[in-house]
Design a protein that fits this description.
Elements (H helix, E strand, L loop, with lengths): L1 E3 L5 E7 L2 E7 L5 H19 L7 H4 L8 E2 L2 H16 L9 H6 L6 H4 L20 E3 L4 E3 L12 H17 L3 E5 L2 E5 L7 E8 L9 E9 L2 E7 L4 E4 L2 E4 L2 E2 L4 E2 L4 E8 L2 H14 L3 H7 L4 E5 L4 E3 L15
Antiparallel strand pairs: 1-9, 2-3, 3-7, 4-6, 5-6, 7-8, 8-11, 9-10, 11-16, 12-13, 14-15, 16-17, 17-18
């Protein structure tokens, strides 16, 4: 997903959290200061939520042996978003797939995954289930059963984009767009005509400069827009063709009729939960998204595009959460 910046905006682009970070502000004079604040906030998110850092708070939960652990307000918020996404999607998005992600070889930053030649042994194993995780927000404690490993990859970047966009808009007093990979959040007063966002269907691995499929350009004025797919982050291991969207029902990469799903919602976190859930739900996902009132664009493997009501007309974020 790319953003077309108007002449009255200024943009910066760099990498963090294993993906491309793009910041756009409607006051060019504030770009540098906003960029510094964004970098600081994303560094805090990484320390709290990374599955790949041995010193992260999330990784520390692996050694708790089922005991309640007091966590930072930041990790508690991220976990609350993940559990809410699991409930809203009937478990299609489940943070207890950490061990399944490790089993398919996605146990490090993606830039290193494709270089790894260790064999993998794939077998069907249902994720433990999000209901087994207990978060007490009053005491700031979380209890994860022994042997259950959490992965916040399906929700954390989108939540971080929401959080950063809101904070920067409040501090800077201008319109702000924060995009982390395919997860885009906007806040504050948008540019004239809204934020013009190109929603792109990617048909192959990002490391191989893939051919790009069809696209739409939409004007987003509030909330968030997310795109998820099974083609951009792919790798091969031991003769298996793998990707990063895991079906909690099997613990294996999802086999979906869709290769790319884009959704607009009241927040980027809601939008991203809906895109991932749509890939997992597969056939009939467009009806599920329509029932929720979410504007969406689904691309099948043969390139056929299916949209739900409201797409790609002016996307005003719906009030209901995904």
């Amino acid at each position: 997903m790319t953003t077309t910046a108007l002449r009255t905006t200024a943009a910066a682009e760099w990498r963090a959290l294993g993906t491309t970070v793009r910041l756009v502000v409607t006051d060019p004079a504030l770009l540098d200061s906003c960029n510094l604040l964004l970098a600081r906030q994303l560094a805090e998110v990484d320390v709290a939520c990374s599955r790949f850092r041995t010193d992260s708070e999330l990784t520390a939960l692996d050694t708790a042996h089922g005991r309640p652990v007091r966590v930072s307000p930041l990790l508690a918020e991220a976990l609350a978003v993940a559990l809410r996404a699991a409930q809203a999607t009937d478990g299609a998005v489940d943070p207890t797939v950490g061990s399944a992600m490790d089993a398919i070889g996605y146990d490090r930053d993606f830039t290193l995954v494709r270089e790894d030649d260790r064999p993998v042994s794939l077998r069907v194993r249902r994720a433990p289930g999000w209901r087994k995780v207990t978060l007490d927000q009053e005491t700031g404690t979380v209890t994860v059963p022994e042997g259950v490993r959490l992965d916040l990859g399906a929700t954390a970047k989108a939540w971080a984009a929401d959080r950063a966009a809101r904070m920067l808009a409040e501090v800077a007093g201008c319109g702000v767009l924060v995009s982390l990979g395919g997860d885009t959040a906007v806040a504050g007063e948008p540019p004239t005509g809204g934020w013009q966002i190109r929603v792109q269907d990617i048909t192959g691995p990002v490391e191989e400069t893939p051919a790009q499929g069809s696209y739409d350009t939409v004007g987003l004025r509030s909330g968030g827009l997310a795109t998820s797919g099974t083609t951009a982050r792919r790798w091969q291991r031991g003769g298996y063709d793998l990707h990063h969207i895991v079906d909690p029902r099997t613990g294996l990469p999802v086999r979906s009729p869709w290769r790319t799903v884009s959704v607009a919602a009241a927040s980027c976190a809601d939008a991203n939960a809906a895109t991932t859930a749509a890939l997992v739900k597969g056939a009939g996902a467009e009806r599920w998204l329509t029932h929720l009132g979410l504007p969406a664009r689904l691309v099948a493997h043969n390139g056929t595009v299916v949209t739900t009501p409201g797409w790609p007309a002016s996307l005003v974020a719906p009030e209901a959460a995904a």
